[in-house]
Amino acid sequence: MPIPKNVTFVTFDVYGTLIDWETGIYEAFAKEAERDGFEIDRAVLIPLFHEISREIESGSYELYAEVLRRTAMEIAKRIEWPLEPARSGFLPVQRWKPFRETNPQLQKLAKKYKLGLLSNIDDKLLGQTRRHIPIDFDLVVTAQQVRSYKPEPSHFTECARRMGGKRGWVHVAASHYHDVVPCVKQRVPVIWVNRARQTLEPSQKKPTAEVANLREAAKLLGAS
Taking the model in full, what pTM does it have? Predict the structure, then answer.
């Protein structure tokens, strides 16, 4: 699906796309583990976090706060850190900060388009994150609202329903697994913000466009 000639609505994934959650996750783990004299290796932690949280999200729906708690416990188990269950709720979503480019680029885009958020999170936690992003979004769809996690199609189906169709819609996201794949399946144009410089296999779904950061995405959408 090409980018529409007349874009009217741009939606974003939040964590990893607008919010530097990998840094936030690492810092929270490192701080909590330090209490036990345990050292965390970021290069080991982040892939484990993605792997385990995906496994948990693919099961029956539960609030993301619980997904985070269970993910923390399972990571601790695998890296042999004796974390007590009572301390497993240490991941402070409200402290995770936007990438430096996030707010300036959103402000540019907001002058041209309606903006929305499609996020694998709870309404309360997203509300805490939005304090760091002073933009009035026209549409917000969370996992709590649709009771499922991307890459399941519910976020995108609900978004299209609220917008009255897919015409003029472009989605922007950093996760190939959570966002690019379902967008391609549902024929929603998607700009992949490939911050990690991931290389796709020939068999993997290709996005409409690939950029290195939000600045490039805004430029592609004519809002630089």
Answer: 0.95
